[in-house]
Amino acid sequence: MGQKEIKLPTTAMGWAARLSKIVKIVHDAHGLDRFPIKVADIARDFTANVYPNAPITLVDGRTLSKNFEGALIPKPDGSGEWGIFFNSGIVSPGRINFTLAHELGHYLLHRQLSGDSIFCAKRDLWTWNSDYGRIEAEANKFSSFLLMPLDDFRLQTNGLNRPSVSDFDRLRERYAVSVTAVILKWLEITPKRAMIVISRDGFIDWSWSSEALLKTGVFFRAKQETTPLPEESLAAKQDMSAEAITGKVLPEGVWAKKEPVFESVLYSEYHSMTISLLIFPDEGPWRPTWISDPGDDSDPLEDTFSRMQRSSR
After folding, report:
1. Of 31, 145, 215, 241, which sits most exposed with the smallest number of CB within 10 A?
2. Confidence class of residue 52 from pLDDT cuts 50, 70 and 90?
3. Is residue 170 part of a domain?
4. Are residues 17 and 142 in the same domain?
5. How many other CB atoms are there within 10 angstroms of residue 91's CB atom?
6. Domain stop point among 115, 147, 179
């Protein structure tokens, strides 16, 4: 009888789960630390075994346009080999690791769509919603689940009640990713009403809400309209004190019209941006706040809540 063909995954989460399982088995067998995931080793070894006619043989930094973070490129000699690259101008190990995993995701999921190179811009690596770009969202999902598998991530974040950005620093080191990537991962699984806001020069660049927060109508329209930071927010004040990193409760009327919000901020090396993590009360408004109260003649779009939306949705 012939050798049974191994069925390969077809989704981002399927591929991430397959590779995570292999990494865990190998590391447990040899008594090695499972984290951080060594993407370069996985890319070369796994693809050489599974795709011997089209393996990844080169993983390296390259001089790319400042607009690009990474790339998946076929070898031009027609050998079938591929390379995954990060922009050599990137100095953050976390960004490099996430970029390489993102490009590995493109290799596993998308290289056969055209056989051409795939170049990824900065914003592509923060696209976690397919409304912006399906293949970029899939590559990011793969990267997230490969580098921060749910079994370990849930264990590491268990008990986080009202976290600040400082609480995610140890996870940034554990998984060798950026603190932004860790917070985005947490927002995907938390039952808390929470949001990350990335701002620059006093304006919101993009944001992402947890599902629980989104269901109560809290989001920013940063993609559709220019949205300034609330004047009394820690981010707007450029407060980079120790208290700002560990977090502070701001009163009603700052981030939300009718709710106090716990804000913590961190200045990021990622193009002079500020990261704000907002934690809202567990019990949200009883209905979406874009619905004005009976007899209220004010424009509901002026409500802080109604100006909130995930930037990538």
Report:
1. 31
2. very high
3. no
4. yes
5. 8
6. 147
